[in-house]
# Entry
Amino acid sequence: MSEEATSHGSEDETTLLIRRLHETEERLRELTAGEVDAVAHPGGHSYLLYQAQEKLLQSEATQRRLATTQLAILNALPAHIALLDKEGVIVAVNESWRRFASANVLQGQDYGVGLNYLEVCDSAQGDCSAEAHAVAVGIRSVLRGDGRHFALEYPCHSPTEKRWFRVMVTPLHEGQAGGVVVMHVNVTDRKLTEESLRESEERFRGTFEQAAVGIALVGLDGRFLRVNDRLCAILGYPREELVMLNFTELTAAEDVAVSLEAQRAMLAGRRSTHNQEKRYRRKDGEFIWVNLVTSLERTETGQPKYFISVLEDITARKFAELRLHRLNRLHIVLSKTGEAIVRVRSRAALYETVCLVLVEEGRLRMAAVVELDDPPESVRLAAAYGEELDYLQKLTVTTDGGPLSQGTIGTALRTGVHDVCNDFATDPRMAPWRDAALARELRSAASFPLKLDGTIIGALVLFAGEAGYFEQDEIRLLVAVANDLSFAVEAQQREFERRQAEEERDRLFNQSLDLLCVAGFDGRLQQVNPAWTQCLGWSAEELTGRPMIEFIHPEDHEATLTARARIHQGEPVRGFENRYRCRDGSYRWLSWSVHPQPELSLVFGVARDVTQDKAADAALQAGEQAQRQLAHQLDLERSRLVAAQSVAKIGSWETDLTTLAVIWSAETHRIFETDPIRHQPSHESFLEFVHPEDRMRVDEAFVRSLNDPAGQGLEQRLLLPDGRVKFVEEHWQIIRDDQNKPVRAIGTCQDVTQRKLGEKRIKETEERYHALFDRSLDAVYVHDLAGRFVDANPAALQLLGYSREEVGKVSFADILANEEEVRRAYESMQTQLTTDVSDGVVEYQLKRKNGERIWVELASSLVFEEGRPVALQGIARDITQRKNSEEKLREQAALLDIAHEAILVKDLEDRIIYWNKGAERTYGWTTAEALGRKSRELLQPDPAKFEAALTALMETGEWRGELEKRTKADQLVIIEVGWTLVRDPAGRPKSILAINTDITERRKIENQFLRAQRMESIGTLAGGIAHDLNNLLAPILITSQLLQDDAPNDEYREMLQTVQTCAQRGAELVKQVLSFARGAEGERIPLDVSHLLRDIRQVIRETFPKNITTGFQLGRELWPVEGDATQLHQVFMNLCVNARDAMPQGGKLTVGAENLVLDEVYAGMNSDAQPGPYVVVRVEDTGTGVPVEIQERIFDPFFTTKELGKGTGLGLSTTLGILRGHGGFVNLYSEPGKGAKFKVYLPAKTTPGAAERTAVEQTRLPRGNGELVLVVDDEESVRSVTQKTLERFGYRVLLAANGAEAVARYAQQRAEIAVVLTDMAMPVMDGPATILALRAMNPAVKIIGSSGHASQGGVAKAVGAGVQHFVPKPYTAETMLKVLADVLAKPV
# Structure
């Protein structure tokens, strides 16, 4: 039930009692027959008594009982009641009326009995005159019978308090004209409650609007009902537009379902609050991230009313997280690109794989590879992966310098440098593609050139769905991806050329009609071409591996061995002939051209079956006929040879040595690229085709062959008319007549250009490989699948300590440090064999030959031959020094983290690169938050002092000093700084080592000590000056008084009076100086402080302006204090006068006193206090308040904020001196614009046993049962002493230095925390904002507010935030523990 209802209930009860009085009166009238007399009671009360007639005499006992009942009822009523006769004269009043009159103005007038109440109301003046006139009108109306009753509420304030009353007028006799009953009911409590509620609403509105977070009241339908300015700023909407929207209209589509489900759960009672990180769309279309805490407000009956939502903008934090995740994903892309390079063999597949990895792992919208096409100005799509491939398929890009070449792709292809567009919407270069890109929600693009042997062949093209995606770190990683891709393309191109050369070689080898072979210096065939099988019938398997001598005719063994000896000496052999046994047992003549390679211990041979030639020679010798037949046969053979040449791409030629006529076959014309019809070959024209550098050698070889019966052969170069060079291989034989004269030369010509180029590429590739292999600084090795080393480069040998001969006898398992490493290596190899996927770079510990342990990072890949794995190739790098350094750094970091000092390392650009645990404790920033940031931005030192210190550091190499810096909680701390300039081995400055010590508390103590010393010194000086001034003023006062008696006239006497007055004023000033200098002086006697304060109350009422109301609240039985009454009177008067001066426009001055026992808790919060009993005098005003910046100076001598001539500046300094002389102290609590409160603490002289009683009461203080209390205060000393006290009395304690930290801790341990004790004024997030956030998380959370500004708004702030319990600071253990026990005992 409300107070108003209670008030009206009291009024109804009063009316009922009056009605009973009327009934009693009627009964009396019956008994007395209506005859009455007025009788005055000896106590001064007036009653109407009826003259008792005979019936009354017979019922005297009844009358007395009724009268007593009537009087008791009237006096028991809380209302002030007066009975008025028909003229308006007061004829009787009740006890409540008398008490009120006694406390106000009617105690000397028989409490108003006999006065005409109507005349009093008519003559009223001042603030309430209008209400008094209205009451008079109402009374007359009831007296006349015009109305049955009259009621009116009116203010009736006293000098000490505000009051309101409700006056009610009813007829004395129901239904009859005559007197009236006037009742005044006190409705002050209801009025004050209404006013408090109104002020609370205003405070809530102020907190709501000024909160640093967005706050909204949201209807059950999701529509915004009420929003604060911060929420409007976060969402970018004006208030009038925002309240027309539903929160689902602003929520990102992906987050709506979670929010709606949370609302349903709260409405169903399954949960009390909801916390969610979600995205909102601002009015400008931009999406932001917020941390949302929502709770459901219910009616008293439990029905849902609306939701309360608290939003904190965390966009910056989320973007930082997203960017970190993005970079991590790109690191994964780089790693997987490396894996793809090792695993994927074809360029197209590699392109596709890299694009897939960039989209799937890098979270890009699309990735593609484009290549330059023919003509070079055009571009074709080589590979792509992503969501909007149709965009790429329709994309038109050129490199001709026109508009279509100005985008990122064209720029990268033209310049060879990566190019970025971070917003399609604003980049003018992207105009040709803008609409199509934006329609597909593509906002950013970047292109990175791909190169082959330094030539641009294409570009890696990437697209992102958000603007500004490609920042420097992302670009750096993506450049690495493109470079790796270019490297892979080059490697694949080299491998392709190598395979092509091998295939060309094998093709020539297998298709040659000549017998080609490779043999070792041991005379065994290692490789033969199919022509061997065609010629001799033996298969390749039957030939290879067997000594060639086994197949040679016995008669040719000696000549063959002789030729082999020449070959072993490195001499090529041409035209040697011997007979080889066929598989069917027959022999065939072979003519040999052999080229030894001693460095390889190999012999490359070309043999031609000349069996037919031998038979032809025999036939020629048989006769002319046979010769003609043979010529005919040769023509046939020539025809077949031409056909064979065409098939085998081998040309033939014939020269008549007698006529020098030359015949070329069609294939020879094709090789020389001549027209068979127009070109008439000759020996001279042939030599013209031969390369000038080879011409002499060819001509000499042909001349030599005329005298050599063996066949000839050589390789030469042709220089064609267009400048091209071809390689050809020539073989010929000289035909002789019967006189052994050369008559004819027959030969073949084969184009071997492709073979020569392939051999050259293979040789270059092998040379490059061996150069890289031998010169690599990293260890490179190859071992077979059994782990046995096959090859190792010098760096590997040096790393392991083995020679090349020794390493071939060692397995990979032998060099691993332990069984665990062997197991890891075996599993890695098995994984590669089964999946062909490498583990990437892996760290292993190896064992060198001498037993030394070393660390390496190793990457390996399989080596394939004919599609199957045969070995593993690995690259290892020694990281032992790095591992040792890392271990040392870990040890050092652990030691540094133990250190109390804040230790950090900055680079020369002031960016933090190391941040220990001490720095986290000192400044509040975690290592993750601090690394990479500039210290001057993070800690905000004074710029001028910081730059001066930095300059000194760079000049001398070190600097020591003090700097003021700010913590994460925005607290200013004083830091003792030691900087050392760290240099690299070359002596160049590299970084700055800073060791910082927080000396804030030490400086506070030092300042207090210096201030005390300064006050003591000033006091000594002031005492000396005052003493001298007294010596000067004493004769002036005495002389001025004496001279007045001898003054010749009044004018002269007035002048002397002025001198005396000024001297007396000076003496009073000196007295104040002496009081300040020496503290308390004079006689110290036991005093009752209440007597002093009552005297001051009288002075105030007589002298202070009427617009200042006063209130005195003096406790009962104040303990006595020992002191000088005059000095303490001066102290209290000084404080009251200062309070008066602080309220020039009026206000309220409150003076109070109470007994208080200070315990160790309070003493720990105030350096001037000692535990024990005190009398505390409180002087409080509602004036302008004391600015924070001067609160430390107001007790300094001669410091004043008053105008010149209106203050000496000694009042408060004298007050402090007197109180210290009495062993006491004074505290100030003030906020600008909200008044000030001074609390004076005077040591009390308690009665015997009081201390013992206090100790007993201390032991009886309520204790906890392990409940967890969250203590929130920005003062470390308050947190510390509160924690110690609570833990001593059985509580567990959790600490927080500000509101933000408190909310975070509560979110983590809300189920355990039983109650929250929070300061109301804190940086970062003050008490009201903290309470609002906590209640949003848990509406039932129990909270105790605390503030040192209770009189200036601390209590109001707490009430406005919904706190029902408050303890002013500084508080005692008793106060805190009792309030805490009371809060915990109440149900939620």
